[in-house]
Amino acid sequence: MPARPELVRPDDAAIAAAARRTVSALAAVFEALGTGEHTLNLAVEQTNDGLVSGHADVSVGIGPERLAVLDETEFGTLCTLITFALEGSTVRRAVLVASTAAEPTPRACAWTVRDGWLRPMDTAELELAVRPCPGLPNVRREVYSAPVLDQPHGR
To answer: How far apart, in whole angstroms, are the C-alpha atoms of residue 140 and residue 36?
Structure first.
């Protein structure tokens, strides 16, 4: 008997619906973050007690609107993990943290996955998560409330 229960693959229709929500969710995240250099970090706790994470560095610009991805493989992995988090059957908890390079202080906000969508995370909880560890050279980030993301109709 395995130490952790095995994950059961969700059906194709559920994955396809979650993939569509992922595209909508990321579009809403990029619109909410606005122009600039952003790092997205996703932490996922699976139902089999596994922990997985993904990240991607992106640049959002306007005039014309553009999205530049630093590493397409990392971005693809992040999108896949968000899809499974939004689908939900194999995920217990997932948090997406967005850090923005801003002067004079970088900023961070976060969303947690609930009911198949990204919901703003409590800022006090986020403050604890992004606090620099004592003795390590980390950047302190200004934490702010993540905007509510409009959810598309017909999830």
So the answer is: 18
